[in-house]
Design a protein that fits this description.
Layout: H1 3-6, H2 10-44, H3 48-76, H4 78-96, H5 102-130, H6 136-142, H7 144-164, H8 167-176, H9 182-191, H10 196-204, H11 221-251, H12 257-285, H13 287-307, H14 312-331, H15 333-340, H16 346-361, H17 363-371, H18 377-398, H19 410-433
Helix pairs in contact: 2-4, 2-5, 2-7, 2-8, 2-9, 2-11, 3-4, 3-5, 3-16, 3-17, 4-5, 4-9, 5-15, 5-16, 6-12, 6-15, 7-8, 7-12, 7-14, 11-14, 11-16, 11-17, 11-18, 12-13, 12-14, 13-14, 13-18, 15-16, 17-18
Length: 436
């Protein structure tokens, strides 16, 4: 299954590991918050609704950060902006360790979200433009395994720190460790080159500065809105589970810190496997079909997990399944969005479509917090997540298949499509004008 990796060039491998590490460290910093929620609720007296608002805030800011970073990456380069986003989210994760109230944490978490959304957008475009089409789905999809690795590191650190320190100090130490990703920037500066596709476009059109609204041009706006609907469904459902799963395990299933760590380890292992499963399916069966199948299975798994009376062993097994499917839907977005848009606006589109879905999907974790005041937490999670995954199926049915697309030809292909459409319209007007 990993034969594709051995065939990558040295430059492709370096870029792969830079993006993999960046996404993993991004995940580590982001998931520290989810793991600290139960402690902050106890120490600060935060309500579940406030906890949901904090989760929603970072996702909304990630949308803005992704779009801004994408626009900058289209103008100044993928590698340079990638470094800035890593520095940004690391710095504000550190600052979160010094907050003393809900309001202060909301500010630092919101600003951290700018870098979180930006790193994903720029990294996904950089790797998509660097890897050749035949293995792009597997390479870009497997990057999602970096999220599982980062999540796993966060869980491990959380387990160790909360087992060794008092809660009032443990969460601060956990956030302070979030400064470590800055070390990756030093390596990127020395070893990573600009994406060949982007470098060629910049040489040929050095003066081209796309408008920040270019993704809403007449030729691309329909694709933009459909891609946003796709990511809304994916992240709306996934962030319900990511944000509320630790609290669900502790507050509803009454698991201890140690048992929660063990359960999450199984879930994370599934997430790691899901990234590779998605990449293989996307390259083998196509992008659209993969989204539809995985989202449908995920809705079934979430409904069973949160709404059905299941035993602890079944809970553990479903934890692996949920992790696999959750990672499986998100893993496909990087390559797919990149293949939908031309190079001159690819990073902007990746940042907007990927992260606007996060922002709109951020309604779902907040809605869980609100609904859980009247419903069981599991019922609120299940309803919101399943509704989100239904949207994934609808959006995938409306978008085109892009498997194997050469990214250097996307712009030309779009222009050709527009030319054909304009010729057809002209022919229709001429035909209408002819006497009967």
């Amino acid at each position: 299954m990993l034969k594709w990796y051995t065939e990558l060039t040295k430059s492709e491998k370096r870029t792969y590991w830079a993006c993999f590490s960046g996404w993993g460290l991004d995940a580590m910093d982001t998931q520290m918050y989810a793991l600290a929620i139960p402690t902050l609720i106890a120490l600060w007296g935060m309500t579940r609704g406030q906890a949901g608002v904090l989760g929603t805030t970072v996702l909304i800011m990630a949308s803005l950060g992704g779009w801004i970073a994408g626009i900058l990456a289209d103008r100044y380069g993928r590698v340079r902006v990638l470094q800035i986003t890593i520095l940004w989210f690391s710095a504000f994760t550190l600052l979160s360790a010094f907050t003393n109230s809900f309001g202060q944490l909301m500010i630092t978490r919101g600003l951290q979200g700018l870098g979180f959304g930006g790193e994903w957008a720029v990294g996904a475009v950089l790797i998509s433009e660097t890897i050749r089409p035949q293995v792009r789905g597997r390479a870009v999809g497997s990057l999602q395994a970096g999220w599982a690795v980062g999540y796993g590191v966060a869980v491990l650190l959380s387990t160790l720190i909360f087992s060794s320190l008092q809660p009032e100090w443990a969460w601060r130490v956990l956030f302070a460790i979030g400064i470590l990703p800055t070390l990756l920037v030093l390596w990127i500066r020395r070893h990573i080159q600009e994406a060949p596709v982007f470098a060629q476009i910049r040489r040929e059109h050095a003066a081209d500065r796309p408008s920040i609204w270019a993704v809403f041009d007449r030729s691309t706006r329909v694709t933009t809105f459909r891609a946003i609907l796709l990511t809304f469904g994916i992240y709306g459902g996934n962030y319900v589970m990511i944000t509320w799963l630790p609290a669900y395990l502790k507050l509803v299933l009454h698991l201890s810190i140690t048992n929660i760590g063990g359960y999450l380890a199984i879930n994370i292992l599934g997430s790691f496997a899901g990234a590779f499963l998605n990449g293989w399916m996307a390259d083998r069966f196509g992008r659209r079909r993969t989204f539809i199948v995985i989202a449908f299975l995920q809705a079934v798994a979430v409904a069973t997990y949160t709404l059905a009376p299941i035993t602890l062993p079944v809970t553990l097994v479903l934890g692996f399944v949920l992790g696999t499917l959750q990672s499986g839907t998100a893993a496909g977005t990087g390559a797919y969005i990149a293949e939908l848009f031309p190079t001159r606006i690819r990073a902007s589109a990746q940042g907007l479509c990927g992260n606007a879905g996060r922002a709109i999907g951020a309604i779902m974790p907040a809605m869980v917090g609100v609904l859980s005041a009247k419903l069981d937490l599991g019922a609120a999670m299940g309803m919101c997540a399943c509704a989100s995954y239904a949207l994934v199926v609808i959006a995938a049915l409306m978008l085109p298949e892009t498997r194997g697309r050469d990214l250097s030809h996307v712009s030309a292909a779009n222009s050709a499509d527009r030319a054909i459409h304009e010729e057809d319209m002209a022919a229709q007007r001429t035909d209408t004008a002819l006497p009967r």
